[in-house]
């Protein structure tokens, strides 16, 4: 069984402290524990970076090693064509995940490059949505619905 990759972009290391009125008070460590629990026996590669280069390298790793990707690219969602190009090479399901409902926010957050290749998008469920994304990704992998 190949791992799933849960990849988190810039500033998500500050989860729990950064704009709690938008992102809540849950920490990234708590999110990781929830994801691992939701995955059961399936291995999880859970990572966070503030670097676009590192995030792209991890997508490349997932291309070679993973069954699925959950990606919260944060600000790179709206700026990174390079990330889009990397994700387009992945042959499995991709869930684009956002803690907040980006469509209820400022217009700068309304155009996602990642959505152009993602299998599905989950947004606005809060940090508690991560384990739901893990379960949804598992369903997509098992049903090969991507």
TrEMBL record:
Transition state stabilizer, annotated site positions: 18
Residues reported to bind substrate: 72, 85, 99-100
Keywords per UniProt: Amino-acid biosynthesis, Aromatic amino acid biosynthesis, Lyase
Coiled coil region boundaries: none
EC number from the UniProt entry: 4.2.1.10
MF-aspect GO terms: 3-dehydroquinate dehydratase activity
Pathway where this protein functions: Metabolic intermediate biosynthesis; chorismate biosynthesis; chorismate from D-erythrose 4-phosphate and phosphoenolpyruvate: step 3/7
Cited function: Catalyzes a trans-dehydration via an enolate intermediate.
Family: Belongs to the type-II 3-dehydroquinase family.
Protein name (database record): 3-dehydroquinate dehydratase
Protein species of origin: Sinorhizobium medicae
């Amino acid at each position: 069984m190949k791992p799933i990759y849960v990849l988190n972009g810039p500033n998500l290391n500050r989860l729990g402290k950064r704009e709690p009125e938008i992102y809540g008070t849950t920490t990234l460590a708590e999110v990781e524990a929830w994801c691992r629990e939701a995955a059961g026996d399936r291995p999880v590669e859970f990572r966070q970076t503030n670097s676009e280069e590192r995030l792209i390298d991890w997508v490349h790793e997932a291309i070679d090693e993973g069954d699925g990707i959950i990606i919260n690219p944060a600000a790179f969602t709206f700026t990174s064509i390079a990330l889009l190009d990397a994700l387009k090479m992945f042959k499995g399901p991709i869930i684009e995940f956002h803690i907040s409902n980006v469509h209820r926010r400022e217009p700068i957050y309304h155009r996602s490059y990642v959505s152009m290749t993602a299998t599905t998008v989950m947004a606005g469920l809060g940090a508690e949505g991560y384990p739901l994304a893990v379960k949804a990704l598992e369903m997509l992998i098992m049903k090969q619905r991507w």
